[in-house]
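[job 4471] stage=fold_predict status=RUNNING
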Amino acid sequence: MSVGTLTAKILSLLPNIGKCQRNFLIHFFTLIIAFRGKANFENLARQGQFNESTYRNNFDKDFDFFEFNKQLIDSTLEKERAIVFDPSFISKSGKSTPGLGYFYSGVAGRTKIGLEIGGFGVVDIENNTCMHLTAVQTLNHKKCGSLLKYYAETVCDYAVRLRGISNRLLVDAYFSRYNFVNPVCEAGLEVISRLRDDSVLFYHYLGPKRAGRGRPKKFQGRVDVKQPDENHFKLVVEAVDANIYEGEVYSKPLKRWIKVALVHHLKPNGELKKVKIYFSTNLTMTATQILIYYSTRFQIEFLYRDAKQFTGLEHCQSRKEKRLDFHFNASLTAVSLAKAAHYLNVPKEQRKAFSMFSIKAQYFNELLLNRFFSAFGLDPNSKKINHKYLSLRDFGKIAA
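[job 4471] inference complete, writing structure tokens
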């Protein structure tokens, strides 16, 4: 199945999509994968079917990427899923660009001037892959007092729609703070993340109740993560390089009881090397489940990487908020469409590693070949040409 065919199938499930917009989107999602160079309006017009103003005008039209991607996810991914939220830095210059400011860049390891998007993805736990859901540009965050509160509000704004997909939210250690976790949990989502190595944790009090008036004793003492109490933690995995402990403790920073997975990383001689603390606000989850879910969080980083390298996530030159929003979401959605059409539809035992490079090479070759056929008046479906077409289409692809 091609990306164009898959796009048409998903669009048929959405109401209120006009014929012109439908035809544009089918063409555009194929073009954004096939193009070479910068994904700006002028270059898209050079390689696509429409003129520059048509691309600009369609970027201004309303389109519900959330619903489109939800339909794509429901038809592609397995039932065991989780939502992942992660901001991503977007390189951008221009004093008149909305949302321009200083944001943290993980690649540079420091804050840089540019834009930022808060991306929602859906991870398939069984297939260990991520597909795009929606992206929201970081705007007006200074009114919230802090970026963390702004992120919490963004998640809460989408909470009702997110719960229709999954009620488990995966975030990195930066978000494991009260100002984010508490409002998100109140919105009906469970948070799975990692705590700081020096987080203050307390045990349940298991002793006898004190006679007389007064509040019952709640805590037994502070948790020493290097030497967990066997009365509160159980060893669930014992291996040469790591031991995993499971327990329910109270987190002072989060002000709530959480289920914790303590991972003791060991040196070759068996001595303790370091301890990492993973947690879930769902007290019924096991330590193994917490680690499996958290490990899939990193799949959204690969989604961002592929969009930046192959579908022009950072190429939009517009200074309009609506066009920027369309470009960010379209670029990330194109990667999901490519993944659904050329990776997830292949039986699991026959799959190789997902390679956006190979898919892009194939679509560019198809674009170029179709130009040749059109210019020379050839029929690509003729028997004389057809057997050569596939080898030319696959030219430049790599075995990932």
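[job 4471] summary: The longest strand covers residues 110-124.
[job 4471] exit 0
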